[in-house]
Amino acid sequence: MSAVKPAAPRPADREVSRVRILRAAAEIASENGYEGTTISKVTKRSGLPASSVYWFFRDKDHLIAEVVRHSFEQWISSQPRWERDPRDERPLAEGLRAILSRSVRSLPGAPDFLRIGQMLLLESREVEPEARQYFLATRDEVTGSIAAWFTSYFDTGLRARRPELAMDLARIVLVSTDGLFFAHQIDDASDPDDFVDVVVAIVEQAIASG
Amino acid sequence: MSAVKPAAPRPADREVSRVRILRAAAEIASENGYEGTTISKVTKRSGLPASSVYWFFRDKDHLIAEVVRHSFEQWISSQPRWERDPRDERPLAEGLRAILSRSVRSLPGAPDFLRIGQMLLLESREVEPEARQYFLATRDEVTGSIAAWFTSYFDTGLRARRPELAMDLARIVLVSTDGLFFAHQIDDASDPDDFVDVVVAIVEQAIASG
DNA sequence: CAATTCATGTATTGATCACTACGGTGACTG
DNA sequence: CAGTCACCGTAGTGATCAATACATGAATTG
Predict the structure, then answer these.
(1) CATH number, domain with residue A40
(2) What's the mean pLDDT in B64-79?
(3) How far apart are CA A112 and CA A67, in angstroms?
(4) What would the pLDDT profile of A137-175 be if each residue is shown by its tens digit?
(5) CB of A14 within 7 Å of some strand C atom
(6) Residue at B64 is within a domain
């Protein structure tokens, strides 16, 4: 009823504990999957009690969604942007090669959100976890920005003739990256540069044909 | 000690119940992952009690390993063999296209072993589930037979010059298939024939280069 | 110095987990 | 027809699950 001052949040601790929990949960989910992530494991690895976990996160589902969000934000901030400098005069293949080879090198570091997200995509449970929907939405955004990047290389004729092309190419990039990440789970000997060659070749072929 | 007659197994029922359990477990594991597969869910979906589950399978770990084995055996028996008829005079690309386009068409049917196997590969738990090891071993076998198929197209000069090539190509085929299967979980609109074109192109490029 | 808020500590809830003990029953064997 | 085996039904075991209740103390406010 009366005006309650929100009371300035405690300076540091809050975020520190929150992130401790997120990090612990990320590791556990990455190792054991969605159902394999238990609050008890999270409390043990984070050193914080269950009451703190539920203080910061509504329930387990929300916790894992926040794990994916946090891990993604961490990762994306270290990534090359899919934005083309207008003065950049290099041909598409060269620009693609540059951006991909940087991007691909971060995959062996295996960001948790990617691993967890892929697990969630493979599952098809009756009730969708919040994290799964968030991951799919994020994926769509990334696809969109990659598509925009491709479009910037097309002349107006090509854009009119094949309006779907940029999105198709973006999807190719994403699916190929999935495949590479996946291959890395089995055998991390594969050479990222070979991979970049392959993707560039596919893209060139897709543009040339059709 | 004394000679015990093994007593002829009951004719039909045994295998019927066993398969009922395997099928139910396959669906559940495919929906909910390894930890999400509970004996209680299996009993509900199969209609058989927990005591029967444990009659046929040592424990949950063994059950899931048998699920992967059974699902794989079902799938492989309907697959085109990676064996080349010696009278087959078609060029590599054509043969590859033929075998792949048949193989790829079976993926949307989403064999459970593939989905479950991919989930298991993504996880990196402390103790390896039996099913994960079995899936990896099976994968290696398949890679080997695909590599042998490629080798049958190489002349002795090429074999000596690039001994790794056949295995590399086989791995490309497998990883690409992973990527396609994965893409299918998100959006099943992708055209299998486009995919075959891409794989054939990658393989041709890999042979030509290097 | 109270009063309030935030975060943690401790203890516990009812549900569900993997797994088992054990009796019953039908089908087959000698 | 008595005995054996294969499988099922019922009813549990203790452990662990997600989630909560509630008391405590430290920091921040008036």
Answers:
(1) 1.10.10.60
(2) 95
(3) 9
(4) 999 999 999 999 999 999 999 999 999 999 999 999 998
(5) yes
(6) no
